[in-house]
Every structure is written in C-alpha cells, then in structure tokens.
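$ ./design --mode recover --in tokens.txt
reading tokens...
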C-alpha cells in the first residue's frame, strides 16, 4: 500500500533514501539496455549491415538464474530487461531470439561475457 501511495500523484513521496535507490536501479537498467543496444550497433558497423537476429538470454526460474546467471539478482528483472531489449530490436526490424543458457553452452558463455 505504501508503494501505491508513492505512485499516485499528489500522495506521499517516498523517503529520500528510497528515491535514491530507485533512481540507482533505473540508471543501472537504462545502462544495461543501452549497452546491449550498443553491442548490436557495433555488430552492425563491423558487418556492414544489421544482424538478422540477436540472441538474448532468458531464465526459467529464480533457481535457474541462480545456477546460470552471472550476477546476483532477480531473474524476473533480467527477463524483463531481455524482453525490453527484444522489443526495441524488433521495432528496428531485428528479430530477437530468447535462449535458455543450457540450450547452447558455448553461445551462453559468449552472451554472458559481453561486458
């Protein structure tokens, strides 16, 4: 209920520390999305054309993410980020393919080490 009040215009504002944390999380999200899109742009420049598709990691559950993910965190957030990146790419005419890490171990390692 507290968060719902924060979300309503004219209602209670979140405390400063919560606002700072939320802004930090949003900044991290935006930076991660931009980094992924920059990587696709770099592929486009290197190849001389946009890729026909881009593989994006996707996780089945929190336990799955805990096993295969490279950072601590919530798999739902990571999956939502992948879906956002996929939607942006698809709007640019690039197919997004969602891959589970165990489907292609070598491909997963390549995708997971793109930082």
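writing sequence...
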């Amino acid at each position: 209920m507290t968060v719902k009040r924060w979300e309503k215009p004219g209602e209670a504002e979140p405390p400063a520390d919560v606002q700072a944390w939320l802004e930090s999380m949003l900044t991290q999200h935006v930076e991660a999305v931009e980094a992924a899109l920059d990587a696709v742009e770099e592929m486009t420049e290197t190849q001389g054309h946009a890729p026909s598709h881009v593989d994006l990691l996707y996780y089945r559950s929190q336990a799955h993410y805990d096993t295969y993910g490279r950072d601590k965190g919530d798999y739902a957030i990571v999956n939502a980020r992948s879906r956002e990146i996929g939607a942006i790419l698809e709007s640019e005419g690039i197919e997004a393919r969602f891959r589970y890490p165990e489907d292609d171990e070598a491909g997963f390692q390549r995708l997971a080490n793109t930082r």
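exit 0
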